[in-house]
Specification:
Elements: E1 2-4, E2 11-14, E3 34-35, E4 40-43, E5 68-72, E6 78-84, H1 88-93, E7 103-105, E8 109-110, E9 116-117, E10 119-123, E11 128-133, E12 139-140, E13 149-152, H2 172-195, H3 203-209, H4 213-220, H5 224-263
Parallel strand pairs: 6-12
Antiparallel strand pairs: 1-2, 3-4, 4-5, 5-6, 7-10, 8-9, 10-11, 11-13
Length: 264
């Protein structure tokens, strides 16, 4: 990340979020970073993360792949706080970016006891909405996530491979297989639709073929040529119906598989 002066556009600071590793890009599906007027909040994509931390909970390597980050700007860009899911290494290996979604700073929340909470939330491919306390984001805990709240299974994350239903999470292998089957059927569908587009000289024959037989014979004299045109139209319509049916069957089968998997 690079910082510039708003007055002179001169570069003022540079921060590498994985200086001793790899990955850790910032993309968030095109979403912008969030700010409470003091700090900057965003989600980092999968990448290197060193689970070794010092007594203050700060990583010794400075690698923050797949993290929910809070940056300070007082003396250049620096990591002021962060949250890292307890299963972050497994998620990075499975390409389940937390950083595929954006961050949102919430209005102050006053609970029943009168305590004011400063919260932010973010979500990615793992279908979990993470609600963090901006004053103490939780850092990394290998046993359990020490954050304000986790809402599990509420969404299919941005750029997730599973978008069949809003509450169903299926395995990556099944999702990829389903996507390939759908793409294959849809390619055939588009190819056949393209083949139906005839040059201008063939269009009158198609118009004749669409007329009732008696009227076509009265206007154009009938004949084998016109019968062949009608047969071609019927064949193309049948193919289009078959492709549409195949697409619906693939989607229905995928939804049943995903639902069965979630029930198990």
């Amino acid at each position: 990340m690079i910082a510039y002066s708003a007055d002179t556009l001169k570069q003022t600071s540079v921060l590498n979020l994985t200086p001793n590793g790899s990955g850790g890009a910032i993309w968030m599906s095109g979403a912008g970073m969030a700010s409470d007027g003091t700090s900057i909040y965003f989600l980092d994509a999968n990448g290197s993360f060193d689970a070794t931390v010092n007594a203050a909970g700060v990583q010794t390597s400075g690698d923050y792949g797949n993290a929910f980050l809070k940056l300070g700007t007082t003396s250049g860009l620096s990591v002021a706080d962060y949250f890292e899911a307890s299963n972050t290494i497994a998620e990075s290996q499975a390409d389940e970016d937390l950083g595929s979604g954006g961050a949102l700073v919430l209005p102050d929340l006053t609970d029943a006891g009168g305590t004011v909470h400063h919260l932010a939330l973010g979500a990615g491919k793992d279908s979990i909405i993470y609600v963090v306390n901006r004053d103490s984001m939780g850092k990394y805990n290998p046993v359990a996530d020490a954050i304000y709240q986790e809402l599990v299974g509420q969404i299919a994350g941005p750029f997730s491979v599973c978008r069949l239903t809003s509450t169903t999470r299926c395995t990556s292998a099944r999702s990829v297989t389903t996507s390939r089957r759908l793409r294959s059927v849809e390619r055939v569908f588009r190819r056949r639709r393209s083949a139906r587009r005839q040059p201008v000289s063939a269009r009158p024959a198609r118009r004749r073929a669409s007329l009732p037989t008696a009227r076509r014979t009265a206007l154009y004299g009938g004949g084998k040529r016109h019968d062949r045109g009608a047969a071609r139209v019927r064949r193309d319509q049948s193919r289009e119906t078959s492709c549409t049916t195949a697409i619906r069957q693939v989607r229905a089968t995928s939804l049943v598989q995903a639902t069965s998997s979630s029930r198990r």
